[in-house]
Structure formats: structure tokens, C-alpha cells
Amino acid sequence: MTAQPSTQTRAAADSAAKPLLEVTDLQRYFPFREVQGLRMVKATVKAVDGISFTLRQGQTLGLVGESGCGKSTTSRLVTRLDEPTAGSVVFEGRDITHLKEHQLRSIRRDVQMIFQDPYSSLNPRHTIGSILSTPLKVHGLHKGKEKARVQELLELVGLNPEHINRYPSEFSGGQRQRIGIARALAVEPKLIIADEPVSALDVSIQAQVMNLLGKLRDELDLAFIFVAHDLGVVRHFCDQVAVMYLGKIVEYGDKKKIYEAPEHPYTQALLSAAPDINVARGIAPKERIRLIGDVPSPIDPPSGCRFRTRCWKAQDICAQQEPPLATSVEDTTSVRARRDRGLHLQACHFPEVKTTLVAEVPAEPVA
Amino acid sequence: MTATANAIPTQAAEATSVGDVVLDVQDLSVAFPTEEGLVKAVSNLSYQARLGRTLAIVGESGSGKSVSSMAVLGLHNPKRTQITGSIKLDGIELVGAPQSTFQKIRSTKAAMVFQDPQSALHPFHKIGKQIAEAYLAHNKVSKAVAEKRAIEMLDLVGIPNPKRRALQFPHEFSGGMRQRAMIALGLVNNPKLLIADEPTTALDVTVQAQILDLVNDLQKEFGSAVILITHDLAVVAETADDIVVMYAGRGVEKGDAKEVLAQPSHPYTYGLLQSLPSHSEDLTELKAIQGSPPSLLNLPPGCSFHPRCDFKSQVPGDACWTELPEWRPTPGLANRQIRCHLTDPVGTLQEDEGVR
Amino acid sequence: MLTYILRRVALALSVILATLVSTFLLFFAGPSDPAQAMCPETRCNPARLEQITKSLGLDKPLSQQFLEYFKGLFVGRDFTYAGDTVHCGAPCLGYSFSTRQSVNTELFTRFPNTVVLALMAAVVFVTVGVTLGIIAAIRRGTPADRGIIGSSQTFGAIPYYVLALLVALYPVVLWNILPQYAPISAGVGPYFLGMLAPALILGLYTSTSYTRYTRNSMLETLSMDYIRTARSKGIPERTVLVKHGFRAAMSPIVTILGLDIAALLTGTLITEQIFGVDGIGRRTLAAFRAQDLPVIMGSVLIGAAVVVIMNLVVDIAYSFIDPRVRLQ
Predict the structure, then answer these.
(1) A18-359 has which fold?
(2) Among A224, B40, C48, C249, which is least packed, fewest CB within 10 Å?
(3) Distance, CA of B135 to CA of B5 (rounded, Å)
(4) For the ABC transmembrane type-1 domain, which residue ranges apply (chain C) (predicted)?
């Protein structure tokens, strides 16, 4: 190739830089005691059990999974609202896994959260102005010019800056969620954890808020961890997707890979279970994989692969060996090709690999 | 299968075969007087539910979709609700009917499955007893027979070990199992109409699929009419036969469910479909409907949707601002009705889709 | 369940012990000198004071005094008074400084009077309060509701001792409609009739808060989804209210009830004083005046035990009402 670096390779070089967030083998166990007959038994809820991922500036990672899979716990661990039992969280090269509250000050500024419920997450007794200026004061930002900044924020999220003295109850659900977003943005964070940010909103409002988040992400170059159960919303918003089941990531990769060629049976079941609007346009409904039963208890998860109790592919090995989260393609391609292909990992002994995807990538000798 | 203890005098023919109208709602209005004024939750709503078919009532929160069906079972406090119009359930007029009538038709002719099975089941009573209670209320049988019936129903809705499960409390059930139990409770007296109010909204997606499949299977088996109240258009596409789209207490479009979703002819329906992420998955921006729904205390004059409508400029004059559009057949589409002033709604919306 | 109760009992014992130690320390930390209080004013001299101090055992170090007291609770102890040695069997609460009577006798002969008063009052406030509360909830917004809530608020706003004094004065003393307090020795009939006036006023006054608790709890329950489900079954409204509404509405009331009964058992002091009921509250008041440490310690012990036991009873009762609550 020529000496002139293309935009693509520059982007690749940037993304190869130091990641914003590195999560390694993260665990969160909740110990509790239970009375069984006359004995007290110590038990543990393994809410998050060894997950790893990295996130770079401007990237968006979607965490999907059903209730109890550990996606919300993960977001609390990453923001250090909760302390991990084991593993590490490294933010901008700094290990924040076990920092004390007073040491977390800068992290509290760089990492912000947007919550699900726009009703309970805003203090009803405070005006919007006070809700939005508090984080500024706490972090000593825009001293003396807080009001101007608050108005700027309101404008940024599409609210009337004149409403600075109103109370949360005077706003609709969608507007409140905008206030929640403005609050998160007030301190100019680098990473935003959005925990089901649109699931409490109506469809038409949901689209408005999604658009706002997308616009802000692009304008401010924010990284997002987007926790959601709505697969359509995640597909629209995220670049990378991690599918979680019982405290583990079972599949991880580029959005396109996950949605178009899922390799893990659970991902396949999850995607096939979501009803499809296109059925109305005469497109035949996809073959629905019917999962039997419920998610097992995280107190005593199944041995080996955690999904095996509901999996139609399960064999003896699934009970004996835990499948690692790994790529299913034998890696004969170049580093460059692998990067272009995008990362795609899954944790299954019998993954469904669509070989066509590999063939699309021209093999290149390793440089 | 069931013997209704008290025969109810009927004013019209009972629905007996597939396609017969079980529920005929005509010009129904429901309003709640409050200190701030009259909340017009439902205005002039009309629809029919037919045996063997699923009618979807679709709308956002506050559109009145649940309020109208609660009126069918008389679940609004009569002292604090103004109901006018007509609700005929299997020939029985229910608007203005005494509590005794409602008591007889509840569970026997129409039953309801609610959104959150966690709060809809009594936390202090055993599942089996809760189901048996509904059977006992309408059948002259012993408690033992009713409890046996409850176990049969739990078995029917796919709860393993129904005998043991009947003796458990709701908190010992998972979310999906609770919703199955709710459905068992709804069907215990073999009603002709099952109203499912957001039955899967509180459930995970794999469980949602199980529950929707179950409702479909049971409908085929019992041949009853189902009203599915939901905000999820994808669920409608996969399960409903007919649809009524509601906005701010009024129906705005009705017709065949799949046809409406494939080719909406009301700007609101069109806007809802456009705003779905699945509709524009590779676009950076979703096509949102601007603004937010109006207050039911103070509905805008004319068409309630006009403040949010992108097409009002294409209607000559100021009809959208001043005149409430009446139901009319959509020009160019069979079996479709809308409340909209657009002269050529189909063409207008198609053109817009092409432009975007 | 059994382990739960055993654990709770162990916890209860430590709570009671802590209460005893702190009462003991507070007593001596204060400006109290029981010997001075007992020393007859006219003939008091240092020698006599010392003698009294010694006879009360107050000359020993605090820790030893407490250990002896504590030992008495479990194995009994011997007292030497005026040359005689008296054995006080476990659980020995000691002897009153002022009356030289056994505290056990002093308190346990009076405690039943307090129990009878408290329980009679409880019957009154539960029946009246809960009934009115339920009527108000069911008839919400009607004149009946407003009447009940209005009158209970008015009644509850009057200071209790004023009401109690008025009742003791007019119907009991002046008009003779209600009989005066009579000890049990006067016969069972007169005894219970005499309890009627104090129990009624105490019960009615307490019932005002129960009316409000019950109304709120019932209204909250009636707005629950499961009540809507019950209605949608086609069962009579009465059944909905009683079988589905009432029990759920009562579960929070049980907690308050348990604590209120415990409070009454340890302190119907004003009522006892005004109506002359010879109960434990009145005796404790007298003990405080006389700086009578053993009696104070005894009533604190009984009070702590009552509170702890009622808490346990409430928790167990709760687990029977609400199947979601598991004792652990």
C-alpha cells in the first residue's frame, strides 16, 4: 500500500491505543445465610462470575440478558457503586477496583450513570436547576457560572432553558429522562453507564431519547455501556454486544456478528424469542426456539456450562467442563483481517459457526 | 365443561361459533372526575371482539387502552367514574348494569389477565385456592372438586407438578409461572372472552414467547375471543388478528392487524411504526414522533393528534385544529377505518416514507 | 423456627442484661442517695446514715453490688437485716429499700392489675379502632368517613391526662355511673367493674390512632392489584373485602399492636395514678420518688422482658399472617 495512511488505518491505530475501561475476571458474590432445618447454611449468590471486556473512547457496549443475568450488577461494579469480590476494573490505566470512596472522586466525575426510572431517580423536592448544578458544585466546575452551564445543559438535551426553576413533577416521563441525561453530562464524563434508559418510556418518546443519546455520543465522543433487555434498542445503539447468562458473558462481539450470526445457543434462543414486526409485512416468522423452564438459581448454578440445563445441544461434556469465552474460528488470518472481521467470542462447546463469514475476509500473510 | 349456576337473562343471541361477536363496544366514554377537572380517559370508543379471534388494542400509556377493558368487567369504582355508551357482552348490556350482573359475568363470560403477575396474585393465599375460589363462585361444587379443577387448570397451562404447585404461594413461583397461573385463573370458568392487559410486559423475552404461545394455543383449544392490550407492535404482528390503535382516549385506526402494521393509514400509527428501532436499524437516527401525548384533562381541540402530526399542513383549511375527525373507511383500502382528515392518507404516508 | 426462637431468646437475654447494667449505672451516676432518702429527717445523723448505707449494702463497690444482684436473679441470695438472715430464692429481685418487702412480691402482686388493665384496654382499642377504620376505608369520601376521621382526630388531640381526669371525676366519682377501682380481694365482680372506667378511657383514646392506621392500611390494600383480581373472579364484594382485603390490611397493624401492648404493660402509669389502680406503673413511680433501687431495677427488668417477648410474639404472628415472611 502507499505511505499515505488512510482514515481507516488511523482509526485503527487510535482504537489500538490505551483502552478507556478494562474489566478483567470481574466477580461479585453476595454471601448470605440461610436456615435449613436446624442448621445455618452459608450460601452465595454469584451475581457476576468472572466477566471481562474492554471499552475504548467513543465505543458503545451493549449488555443484554434476562433478569438476574448480572447485567445491572456489572454496571454497578464498573461505576464502583459496588465493590467487586474479585477481578479488576481499570479506568484510563488506573486500577479502581478497591479504591476507597474518597479516592473515587475523579472516577465519579469521569463515569456517570443514567437510570431506568425517570420518576424515582430525580429528587422531587429539588428544582431542575438545583439537580443539575449540584454535581457542578461537588466537582467545582464552572464556578460562578453554574446557572449558565445548567441552561446550556438543558438546551443540549432539548429542554427549555427557562424551565430551570421547575420541579421534576412538572415534566413528563420523557422530559425527566432528558433531565437525567443532562445531570449525567453536567460533569463532562468520558463514560456513561445507561441502565435500561428507555425501557420505562413509551415507544414514541423512546425514539426521541434514543436519538438524543446517539447525538450526544457522537458530538461529545462518549463511551457507553448500555444495559438493556430490549434487543432492538441495543441493536440500534451499540457497536459491541455482550450477551450475559447467569453472571457470565456467553457471547461477545460486534453487533452485526451477534445479531446476524449468533454462535451461542442462548443468543440464538434470545434473538428468536423476540417477536418480529416484519411478520406483518408477510415475512415468515422465524423459527422460534422454545426454551424450556426458567433460568436456574444463581445460588447454585449448573456445573460446567450454565446454560446446559435449558440447551438442546447439551452433552456430557457440557456438565463437566466450563466452555471458555473464545473465538470459534481457527485463526489463520492476519492481525489486520482479524481486526477488520471484528472480535467475536462465544462460550459454548458446540457453537454454530457460519463459515461464510470467515471466507468473506481475504487471507493476508501476517505482516 | 362448566355449568354456570345462575343463568343470566340475555337480550340478544349468544355468541356460539367462531367469528360471532362476543363483545360489542359502541361509543364508549369513560371519564374520571377529579379536583382538577374531568379526566377523559376514553372517548367515543367502538370495537368488537369475536370468538376465535384476537383483537389487539394498541396505544401508549394514557391512551385509555386498559381503561376501556376494565369497564367491561366493571372494575372501575362506580362512584368515581362516568361511563356512557354501550358495552354488550354476549348480548348483555353492561353500561349501567348493577353489581350483581357484573358479579355473574366476571370469570364466566369475561376474564382478565393483568400485567404484573407478582402483584395481581394475593400474596397470602395459595395458588390453588386462588384459582379454586373463582370456580367455586360460579359452580355449585365442593371445595375438593374446585381444588381438583384448579390443579387441572395448572396442568393445562403447562405448570409441572401441578398438585404440589397448587399448594404453594405466589412468591414461590417464578415470573413466568405466575403469569401461567394467572391465565389458569382466567380460564377456569371457560369464559368466552379473555382480556390480557400487557400480559408479557413484566416478563423476560424468552418467557414472553412462552406465554404468548400459550395464549395462542389455549385460544385455539377453547375458541374464545382474546383482547390483547399492549404497546408492543411486534407482539401484535405475531399474535393478533384485528387491531384498534388508540391515542389520547380515542381509537384512531382499526382493521386487520397485519394489514395495519404493514401499511398504516393514520399518521399516528405510521409514526409509531417509524419510531421502532427495528424499522431503521442501520440509520443513525430513529424517526421519532415529536412532542408528547396531551393531558387527558385538557385535550386539544379538533384532532387530538394534531399538535404532534407532521401532515396537518396537507389538510386544507383548519380542520385538524377545529374538527374532530369521524370514523371513515380509508380511501383505497378495504376493511380499514381511520379518524383523520387527510384526503389521501395512504398516498401521503407512502410519499413520506419514500422521501425519508 | 426453633433455631430462630433460640437465637431470639439469646438476643433477648443480652438486651435485658444491657438494660439492667445501664439502669444500674444511670442510677448511681445521678445525684441519688437512697440512704439519705430513707434516713428519718428529724433523727438523722452520720452514724445512722452509715448504718443505713451498710444495711442496704450500698457501702460495697458498685461491681460487687451488681454481681450480687445478678447472682440473685439466677441462684437467689441471702439478705441480712436486723440480725436475721433471709433467703431470697431465684429469681431474686431483692428487697425494697423503703418497705423492706421482697421486690418479687411487691411487683408480681401488682403486675396482674396492670396486665388486666392493658388487655381490657387493648380489647377496646382493637375492636373500636379497627372497626371504625374499616368502615371509614370502605365508605371513603362519604360523610361517615369524614365523621369518623374528624371525631377521632379531635378526640386524639385532647391531652390524655385531661380526658382521664374528666372521666375519673365525673362518671366515676361524681355521678357514680362507673364503679371505682377495687382490689381483687374485694371480689372478682367489683374488681373487673372497677377496671372498666380506666380500661375504657385508655382503650378509646388509643383507638383513635388505630382508626387512622386501619383506614390507611385498608385503603392501601384495596388499591392493590390482587384486590382487582379478586373482584374480577366474580366473588361477592363482601368476600373481596373480608377474605382478600382485611387480612392483608391487618398485617402491618399486628406490628403496631404488639408494640402498643408492650408499651401499655410497662406504662399505664397515668391511668393507674388517676384511677388509683394498684399496678406496676404506680409502684414504680413511688419507687422513683423514694430512690428505691431494687424496685426500679425490678420494674425495668419486667419492662424489658415484656418488650422483648412482645417483639418475638409479633414476629412469629407475622410469619403466620404473611407466608412470604420466613423466620431466620
Answers:
(1) Rossmann fold (3.40.50)
(2) C48
(3) 11
(4) 111-318
- In this predicted structure, which of A347-361, C128-142, C259-273 has the lowest mean pLDDT? A347-361
Q: Decide if B281 and A203 are in contact by the 8 Å CB cutoff.
A: no
Which SS3 state, helix, strand or coil, does residue A229 take? coil
Q: If you classify domain C107-321 with CATH, what class do you get?
A: mainly alpha
Give the Cα separation of C26 and C309 in Å (integer). 24
Please check whether residue C315 touches A, CB under 8 A: no
Spatial distance between the Cα atoms of B265 and B336, rounded to a whole number of angstroms = 9
Instruction: Quote the pLDDT of residue A367.
Output: 38
* CB interface of A with B, residues 255-314, below 8 Å: 269-270, 273-282, 285, 288, 290-291, 294
Average pLDDT on C223-244 reads 93
Question: Is the ipTM, as predicted for this complex, more than 0.90?
Answer: no
Q: For residue B187, is pLDDT > 80?
A: yes
Using CB atoms, which chains have 3+ pairs under 8 A with A?
B, C
Q: How far is C152 from chain B (nearest CA, A)?
A: 25
Cβ of B138 within 8 Å of Cβ of C226? The answer is: no
Residue A235 to residue B207, Cβ atoms within 8 A: no
Q: Where are the domains of chain B?
A: 120-190, 264-355
By the 8 A CB rule, do C206 and C268 touch? no
Looking only at the bridges linking them, the beta strands covering A248-254 and A240-245 are: antiparallel
Q: How far apart are CA C264 and CA C117, in angstroms?
A: 9
Are B232 and A275 in contact by the 8 Å Cβ rule? The answer is yes
- From chain B residues 72-111, the ones with a CB under 8 A of any chain C CB are 73, 75, 79, 99, 102-108, 111
pTM for the model stands at 0.84
Contacts of C131 (CB under 8 A, 6+ apart): none
Per-residue pLDDT reduced to its tens digit, B204-238: 888 888 899 899 999 998 899 999 999 999 999 99
Spatial separation of the C-alpha atoms in residues B350 and B270, rounded to whole Å: 10
Residues A319 and A50: their CA atoms lie apart, in Å, by 18
Please provide residue B195's backbone torsions phi and psi, each rounded to the nearest 5 degrees.
-100, 115
Which pLDDT band, with edges at 50, 70 and 90, does A63 fall under? very high
Q: What is the pLDDT of residues B268-298, one digit of tens each?
A: 999 999 888 876 555 677 888 988 888 898 8
Q: What angle do CA C228, C230, C234 make, to 5 degrees?
A: 110
Q: Which residues of chain C make contact with A35, given a CB cutoff of 8 A?
A: 3-4, 326-328
Residue of chain C whose alpha carbon sits nearest to that of A35 = C328
Which candidate, A113, A102, A168, A167, places its Cα nearest to that of A138? A102
Q: According to DSSP H, which parts of chain C are helical?
A: 2-29, 34-38, 46-56, 62-75, 103-138, 143-157, 160-167, 188-222, 225-232, 237-239, 247-266, 269-275, 280-289, 293-321
Contact B88, B12 (CB under 8 A): yes
Kindly list the residues from chain A whose CB atom is less than 8 angstroms away from the CB atom of residue B177.
Answer: 294
The CA distances from residue C308 to B309, C10, C263, in Å, are 66, 11, 11
Q: Where are the domains of chain A?
A: 18-359
C-alpha–C-alpha distance, residues B302 and B324, integer Å: 4
Q: How far lies A214's CA from each of A58, A152, A191, A234, B217, in Å? A: 11, 18, 14, 12, 41
414472553: which residue's cell? B208
**Among C302, C206, C304, C197, which Cα is nearest to C256's?**
C206
Q: Decide: residue B162, CB within 10 A, 0-12 exposed, 13-18 middle, 19+ buried.
A: buried
From the list A269, A274, A281, which residue is nearest B262 (CB)?
A: A281
Asked if B133 is an interface residue toward chain C (Cβ–Cβ < 8 A), one would say yes
Residues of A in contact with C328 (CB under 8 A): 33-35
Which chain A residue lies closest to B178 (C-alpha atoms)? A294
On the question of pLDDT at B8 being above 60, the answer is: no
